[in-house]
Amino acid sequence: MSYEIKVSKTNKSRISEVDFNNIVFGREFSDHMFVCDYTDGAWHDPQIIPFQNLSLSPAAVVLHYGQEIFEGIKAYKHSDGSPVIFRPDQNWNRMNHSATRMAMPHIPEELFIGGIRALVDLDRDWIPGTHGSSLYIRPFMIATDAYVGIKASDSYKFIIFTCPVNSYYN
Predict the structure, then answer these.
(1) Longest Cα pair distance anywhere in the chain, in angstroms?
(2) Which of 8, 68, 129, 153 makes an SS bond possible with 61, Cβ 3.0 to 4.6 Å?
(3) Which of left, alpha, beta for 107 (phi over 0: left; psi -120 to 50: alpha)?
(4) Residue range 41-91, pLDDT digits in tens
(5) Which pLDDT value is given to residue 166?
(6) 154 CB neighbour count, 10 Å cutoff
């Protein structure tokens, strides 16, 4: 299946507000995020939108039964300024292994890697250029059914956001 990613760019970038020399790990977020929904047994509506808060039912399965999975990936700047993403195929494999364990749907490679590439390409200016720094990529999937009871969700949201980071350890 082929997925077309709809892109809605932010009206105003926040990049000028970031001190790239003093980034606290995981506290600054780039301008956009990738989102895709799973309902009725299929993934649909992949899009890149401005980074924003989520709206969830207080009864969402993720909040009561912890049906959620995530990965962590890094992107670096190549010497020519282009983004280089470190082994996203390995993260895709691990994510789907976790999905199986958590009774969640698999994410097609085209959505996982294609979403990451499209998002990183759009926010490429957020990749720090200093030694030891990178753009941290956080893909995750959450169960979104509004249901308080013991069963796997039937609906999910797959999201990817990024944040510039310096070394986690000194």
Answers:
(1) 52
(2) 153
(3) beta
(4) 999 999 999 999 999 999 999 999 999 999 999 999 998 989 999 999 999
(5) 87
(6) 15
Contacts of 78 (CB under 8 A, 6+ apart): 84
Phi, psi of 89 (to 5 degrees): -65, -35
Cα distance between residue 115 and residue 109, in whole Å: 9
Tell me the one-letter amino acid at 152: A
Per-residue pLDDT tens digits for 93-145:
999 999 999 999 999 999 999 999 999 999 999 999 888 899 999 999 999 99
d(CA 116, CA 33): 9
- Cα separation, 44 vs 3, in Å, equals 8
Distance CA(24)–CA(7), nearest Å, equals 28
Q: Tokens 């009725």 identify what position?
A: 40
Name the residue type at position 163. Answer: C
Three-state secondary structure string covering the chain: CCCCCEECCCCCCCHHHCCCCCCCCCCCCCCEEEEEEEECCEEEEEEEEECCCCCCCCCEHHHHHCCEEECCEEEEECCCCCEEECCHHHHHHHHHHHHHHCCCCCCCHHHHHHHHHHHHHHCHHHCCCCCCCEEEEEEEEEECCECCCCCCCCCEEEEEEEEEECCCCC
